Amino acid sequence: MATMILRDEVLRARHIEGDPELARAIRSLSPDEPIVLRIEGQPMRFRMVRDGATGQPTDAISPDDPEAATWRHLQTRRGATITVEREAPRTDPYLLPLSATLTEWNSPEDAAAYDGL
């Protein structure tokens, strides 16, 4: 589990400590691509912030509207250390044994179309 000090109105990958893989995952997001993180144990969906006015790429993500109020409330604790971890994808236990037999469905296209349903 990673930690970070609340320093900004956005979550910056460079502020994440203890999980370089998570920081790398945030930096590799394409514009407007979502990522679900557990902040202090609570799942929140974030999206990559657009590049700065100078065109410099940013490593920042901001919460989606439904989570924005929760994120703003966390801002009252600026300077505090909070926990951050990537939300683990949920797997349907009924379908798990079938995944080995239905390999024709194991393509990146199918994953993009049907994951998360």
Side-by-side strand order of the widest sheet: 1-6-3-4-5-2
Q: Regions with pLDDT < 50 over 5+ consecutive residues?
A: none
Distance between the termini: 26 Å
Shape, per Cα inertia axes: globular
Structural class: alpha+beta
- For the report, how would you describe the main beta sheet? 6 strands, antiparallel
**Percent in helix:** 10-25%
| Annotation, overall tally of beta strands | 6
Please, what is the average pLDDT? 84
Q: Tell me the β content.
A: 15-25%
Order of helices and strands, N to C?
EEHEEEHEH
How many individual helices? 3
Gyration radius from CA atoms, angstroms: 16 Å
Please characterize this protein's 3D structure:
- The protein is an alpha+beta fold and 117 residues long.
- The protein has 3 helices and 6 strands.
- The chain has a 6-stranded antiparallel sheet.
- β3 (34-39) and β4 form a beta hairpin.
- The model has no long low-confidence stretch (mean pLDDT 84).
How is the secondary structure organized here?
Blueprint (H helix, E strand, L loop, with lengths): L1 E4 L5 E2 L7 H8 L6 E6 L2 E7 L11 E4 L1 H10 L6 E6 L21 H7 L3
